[in-house]
Known about the structure:
Structural class: alpha/beta
CATH topology of the largest domain: Rossmann fold
Number of helices: 10
Number of domains: 2
Oligomer: single chain
Strand order of the largest sheet: 6-5-7-8-9
Order of helices and strands: EHEHEHHHEEEHHEHHEHEEE
Helix content: 25-40%
Amino acid sequence: MAKYIMSPYLPHASPKKDGSQPSHRAGWALLWSQQLNAPLIHNNDIPADCTTLYLEPGMEFDGKQKSFNMALSGKMWNGLYLRMKRIADYVDRGGKIVLIGHTIDGEKSVDWGERLYSRKKNYDAQVLIGKADLTFGQLFPNDVEKIKRATLPGTPSLYQQDIKSNCLTFGDSHAISAWLEGSKCSRNDGMTLNGALERGFSSYIDDMQMQDCHILRLYMGNIDVRHHLLRLFPETANAVKQAERLAAKYVTEALAMKNKYGFNEIQIVSLLPIEHEARRLPKTGFYKGQPFWGTTKERTQVRNAFNRRLKQELKTVGGFKIIDWPSEYQHHATVTLPASQVSGTFKEHTDDISFEYGMLRFDVMEKPHSVHVAPSFYLWSIV
């Protein structure tokens, strides 16, 4: 009995020829792949030996199947149609479907076939202006009915709390990169450390339905440094003090979880080095219209103060471990990139760019831009 994972919408990014994986968006599916011991399908073909197919809709999925409302154009529609038809053919052969991270019930059921067919006219218009070929235009009512049968109300679903493990990784969107192998993962995109402390870690842990707790790994705080500490406390010295207080509260709450749930071990992942401010970032990562608050140098001071306080707490309080990122992820000498070599990874620059000691290396970050570490540089091995 073989099991595989695929996306019913857009294919997960394939590794590069050298085996490296630059896409953080693929990281969530790769994590599930590790947990379920199920290979990830990167194209439209479902292997003949597949008996259970897990459909993973992507880490940005909001539970509303919004991917069908995306403004897809051109050949992207072809791939969507082919994937949906292959899934439907697989179901017709008696293959089992399990939905990852979402459910389809009688009230909220999304009719995949009708959604696809309703967009046929729009797609045909793309064909007329040469932006698409005829593959998607071959979608007819019999295909619609077949695709509708691919997932019906009652199709089983699987969530992170369903994973059998006595270990838990808990954090923000960066938590994927620091996942403790074999653990459940409570990934909370956009969550700040300060917000989690105000709400209380226990509310998140309760959601994961932990039993016989063994290890709790925590990773959050990068967003606080990027967007909030220097915004709320523009004077660097004040932001540093607040970072130290935040780190101390972090440890206190972590140890409270150890006592409450009986975790044998608490692990706190230190914050990443700060990348050069020339890096181009998507608007989805902005806060109040800005990609970050404070210069790279200022944020580095705040980040370093936070990590130092964690180490001080380890010495004076103890009861937890610190997981540090490999030192080779940061620059150990000043490196200058001539303006002539500046590419799309950067914002518009006419001057040379100098990467100083301690800055996060761009080549360990996801491509083409954004703020996460690329899967090939996660703390767990995937390639």
